[in-house]
Amino acid sequence: MDASEARRTLEAELERGRQLFAEAGSLEELERAQTAVMGRKSTFGEVQRSLGQLGEDDRRDVGRRANEVRAELQAVLDARRGELQATERAAQLERDRVDVTLPGRRPRPGSLHPLTATEREIVEVFTRMGYRVVEGPEVETDWYNFTALNIPEDHPARGEKDTIYVDVPGRSDLLLRTETSAMQIRTMERQDPPVYVIAPGRVFRQDTPDPTHMPVFHQVEGLAVDEGLSMTDLRGTLAEFAKAMFGEHARTRFTPDYFPFVEPGGQLEVTCFVCQGLGCRTCQESGWIELLGCGMVHPNVLANVGYDPERYTGFAFGLGIERVALARYGIPDMRLLYTGDVRFLEQFTEVS
Question: Fewest CB within a 10 Å sphere: which of 108, 155, 202, 327?
Answer without folding.
Answer: 108
